[in-house]
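Tokens in:
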């Protein structure tokens, strides 16, 4: 819970922080990457940085968290954090890295606000940051622990067993484990991060949704080619996966994460993923009555495919739409407990 003193300061400075969030985000990343260039080698997605997407996400979420803390001071808004923790866990983010982000974010806030950033103001925002950071570290520790990994061992080599074309611009990969580690069942809407070395030698991570119930040895995901144009270069990872990765090659994938599996028949997709998936896969709208063949192959969840075995008994088969089929609510506890 935020202290009374900090609460008053955050309340007074939230409008100015929110107003300058774009600038704070830009300065934060610039400052952090110049001190820690290694974070652009296998941790941060440089396509997102270059295209400006996501730049505001981190700094913006601190402001959003502060807003919620002010609205409901009696409880910390932990529900805002799950999605972030899952993304962090898919990238192997470590607790000690929170100090780095803290240092550069606080620097960017102070630098942007100038004289308005008194020690009192800096202290109050630092408190918000660490409330959030401790919750994230805690949840991430839980995610790593439940999967029996550490941040250093989330990455795992897989062999490409199959690669097939779904449509002109979508290919599907089936990868097979080459170690003894269990391949845990994924839940609808979950994803893995693929990490590949780019032609310039830099490691890059990208997320891909899992598209099939797992059989204990494989993962499957589909990749849409990102075309260039209008001054934008072609997507680097999707181009590499389409053109250069073939059957027999090795791919590095992280553990499966993602919070957007459905819980009740009326809540098949949580709204953020529902929006982003339908944006990402035109023709695969959550409202389409029947999926087109195109939609079927492109849908980023396991639509029209087998449900995970643990879920099968209670899997709702009522939906004919192009969307994730849902477990009934009673299944949720068992699923989350056994599949984290
Ligand atoms: C949770 C999640 C699940 C996802 N699931 C899937 C999935 O199932 N299938 C799928 O295909 N994708 C999925 N994605 C998207 C995927 O992770 C990648 O973002 C996508 O493949 C593009 O990566 P890329 O490396 O090819 O493109 P990038 O190289 O990252 O480029 C992305 C965009 O930025 C632009 N850009 C890059 N550099 C510059 C620059 N210097 N100047 C201007 N513009 C630039 C590119 O032109 C392109 O438009 C998912 C993403 C998330 C977050
Ligand atoms: C309190 C501290 C932090 C907050 C509030 C925060 C917030 C966020 C948010 C909101 C996202 C976007 C999530 C999504 O796309 O769903 C994100 C992604 C990410 N975060 Fe954090 N984060 C924090 C700490 C860290 C730390 C310590 C690191 C490690 C250096 C880190 C690395 C990343 C990376 C690599 C991504 C993915 C970004 C991309 O690929 O473009 N974050 N974070």
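Residues out:
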């Amino acid at each position: 819970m935020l202290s009374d003193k900090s609460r008053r300061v955050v309340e007074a400075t939230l409008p100015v922080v929110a107003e300058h969030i774009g600038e704070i985000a830009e300065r934060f990343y610039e400052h952090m990457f110049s001190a820690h260039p290694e974070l652009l080698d296998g941790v941060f997605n440089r396509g997102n940085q270059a295209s400006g997407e996501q730049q505001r996400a981190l700094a913006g979420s601190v402001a959003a968290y502060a807003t919620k803390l002010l609205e409901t001071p009696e409880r910390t808004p932990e529900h805002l954090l799950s999605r972030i923790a899952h993304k962090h866990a898919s990238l192997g983010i470590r607790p000690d890295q929170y100090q780095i982000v803290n240092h550069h974010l606080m620097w960017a806030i102070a630098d942007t606000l100038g004289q308005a950033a008194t020690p009192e103001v800096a202290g109050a925002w630092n408190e918000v940051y660490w409330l959030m950071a401790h919750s994230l570290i805690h949840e991430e520790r839980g995610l790593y622990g439940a999967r029996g990994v550490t941040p250093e061992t989330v990455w795992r080599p897989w062999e490409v067993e199959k690669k097939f074309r779904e449509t002109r611009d979508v290919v599907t990969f089936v990868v097979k484990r080459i170690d003894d580690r269990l391949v845990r069942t994924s839940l609808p809407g979950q994803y893995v991060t693929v990490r590949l070395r780019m032609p310039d030698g830099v490691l890059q991570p990208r997320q891909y949704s899992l598209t099939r119930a797992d059989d204990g040895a494989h993962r499957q995901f589909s990749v849409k080619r990102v075309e260039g144009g209008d001054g934008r270069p072609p997507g680097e990872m999707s181009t590499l996966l389409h053109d250069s990765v073939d059957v027999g090659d090795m791919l590095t994938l992280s553990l499966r994460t993602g919070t957007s599996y459905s819980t009740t028949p009326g809540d098949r997709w949580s709204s953020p993923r529902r929006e982003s998936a339908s944006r990402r896969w035109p023709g695969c709208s959550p409202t389409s009555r029947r999926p087109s063949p195109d939609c079927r192959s492109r849908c980023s969840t396991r639509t029209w495919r087998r449900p995970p075995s643990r879920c099968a008994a209670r899997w709702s088969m009522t939906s004919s739409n192009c969307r994730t089929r849902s477990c009934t609510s009673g299944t949720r506890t068992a699923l989350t407990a056994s599949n984290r």
